[in-house]
């Protein structure tokens, strides 16, 4: 029966992934119903803490966006990029990483794509180079952010193993930065310079490349409330890291007869709710605008998707724990790197870090894959560069007026493939090494 149940799980993931968005969560719920009503499996506990962490972070980020804070962050990033146009291939991924890390979302990267394409061409840099690595950098930043949905999933999985937020971050932040730098080095050597590229020069001669617009950056004015909302959001993020680093800062409460510090999931949820409240009150936010923003909408979709997929996956894994351990535990424990390929393949299919982590990390724990190895391979949930179908990839191709950023004739030979592979491989290798050093 296990193999039939596994077929159900992956079939529902495939069906959900084909339509994407909310439907992936619906398909997960439908798969859950099949497992329970059809195979008589006992439902696992829904991932409540993961869901609540994501929801509260999205509420705070959505409040910041409604206050104008997200636009202010994008403007700051644009100014940084325009100050050093010749180094755009290295600066763009690092700037995008920083701002996506701070916000916990890839929204900033998407908003900066037109600027990156424009600045690259103006400075004579092949736009394919910065655009291809920026896509990978934004994905790496999201899994390293202490307030992203993917990190919320990791906290839920590893907290029972006495591995907390700070333990994860001190491995993943330097690992992902290593990957981004490696990817940028590779991207900087992609293709020929524009003035030496015969295909580009031929298109210019034929008049197929639009002339450069004489654009100058005009400093935008932002209300003090927009700037304050960013400060408050970042202070909330810093508070979460401090509470995770120093458990003594958290109140000590009675948990079943023993005195223990307040659990990190509840701490994160309360901090983010407080941040959202303060932003609304002091930044004069129209509460109705919060739910209308792109951050809130996409985030709440993510909540429902994680709910459906994680619940289905956890139910199947729990019901077959003995069989799974007996059949493949020895091989995976001896060669934990093998599990990397499974995580990679699932994310290619699902194209969501948080959902992939929710589906695969509990399975890895159940199989006996060492926690250090699972954290080290965490960047493998960033494999959705493999198929050139994500919004950031499609938009990058459309925005590059030089047509150097492209999807090849064979689909997989696209501009994002090698920078993505190099970034992910370097991040995983660094992750394995750092996990052994810090957590081994």
From TrEMBL:
The entry's keywords: Cell inner membrane, Cell membrane, Membrane, Transmembrane, Transmembrane helix, Transport
Keyword field contains Transmembrane helix: yes
TM spans (from-to): 20-39, 51-74, 94-120, 141-162, 168-187, 228-250, 262-283, 295-313, 333-351, 363-381, 416-439
Annotated Gene Ontology cellular component terms: plasma membrane
An example molecular function term from Gene Ontology annotations: C4-dicarboxylate transmembrane transporter activity
InterPro entries: Anaer_Dcu_memb_transpt (IPR004668)
Any single Pfam family the record assigns to this protein: DcuA_DcuB
Top-level taxonomic group: Bacteria
Protein location: Cell inner membrane
Membrane association type: Multi-pass membrane protein
Family recorded in the similarity comment: Belongs to the DcuA/DcuB transporter (TC 2.A.13.1) family.
The protein, known as: Anaerobic C4-dicarboxylate transporter
